Amino acid sequence: KEESKQHANEDKDKKRVWKKSLLLFIPLRLGLEKLNLEYMSGILHCLEMKHSIGIIGGKPQRSLYFVGYQRDHLFYLDPHYVFEYPSSLSSSSSSFSGTSDIPFTCKTIQSLHISQLDPCMALGFFIRDQLDFDLFWNQCLLFSTLHSFPIFQVGEQMPTLPDLFPTLAHNTLSYPEDPSPHSQLHPTFEDSEWEIL
C-alpha cells in the first residue's frame, strides 16, 4: 500500500510539472489620482527581481515601458517613437541581417521621477518553467515581508478581508444602515487613497 501511494504521489508531481514558459502581467492601481508614494520602494524592488521584464505604465495619457532605475528616476523606452522600416529585412526573410544604417538605439537616456508615475501600471515577469516558477514564488513571498506596503502578494488561496487588513476590517469599515438599491453595497473606507479590488 505504501509503495502504491508513493507511486501515485510521484505521478501527481510529474503531471504538475510544466515546461512551457509563462509571460505574467500583474495590473495594479497604486493610488487614485496620483501614485501613493508609500509604494515607491516596492516598485523599485520589482525592477530588481530576477524575473522582471519591466513595467508598463507612464504618465496620464502616455504609456511607457520602464526597464530600470537609478535612485528615484525610472529609465524608460517610449513605444510611440517610430523607426523607419529597414530595407534589409525583406518579407521573404524572417531574419535581420544587421547591415542597415538605421540605428535602433536611443540617442538619449530617458527617465521619469517615480513621483510622476501614473498610478495605473502593469508589472511584467517572464518565467521559463515550473522550477523557475517555484523560484519566482519564493521571491514573491520574500517581497511581501520586506515592504510595509507590498504592491502585490501571492498566496495559495484567495484571502478574506480580515486576512488582508486585520485592523482596518474591524475599525474603519462602515456599512450603510439602510441598504437600498441606491445605497452602497460595498464598505467605505476613511482613507480614499486605498483601494480594494
Provide a descriptive summary of the structure in words.
There is one protein chain. Helix content is 26%, strand content 21%. Mean pLDDT is 77; it is low at 183-190. It is of the alpha+beta class and 197 residues long. A hairpin with a 2-residue loop joins strand 2 and strand 3 (62-70).
Order of helices and strands: HEHEEEEEHHH
Main β-sheet description = 6 strands, antiparallel
Q: Whole-Å distance between the termini?
A: 47 Å
Based on CA inertia axes, which overall geometry fits?
flat
Strand content: 15-25%
- The low-confidence runs, each spanning 5 or more residues with pLDDT under 50, are 183-190
CATH C-level class of the domain at 19-82 and 105-147: Alpha Beta
Number of helices: 5
Helix content: 25-40%
β-strand number = 6
Strand order of the largest sheet: 1-6-2-3-4-5
Rg result: 23 Å
* CATH topology assignment of the domain at 19-82 and 105-147: Cathepsin B, Chain A
**Architecture of the domain at 19-82 and 105-147, CATH level 2?**
Alpha-Beta Complex
Structural class: alpha+beta
Q: Would you tell me the overall average pLDDT?
A: 77
Catalytic activity: [protein]-C-terminal L-amino acid-glycyl-phosphatidylethanolamide + H2O = [protein]-C-terminal L-amino acid-glycine + a 1,2-diacyl-sn-glycero-3-phosphoethanolamine
Keywords: Autophagy, Cytoplasm, Hydrolase, Protease, Protein transport, Thiol protease, Transport
Domain Peptidase C54 catalytic: 5-138
GO cellular component, one term: cytoplasm
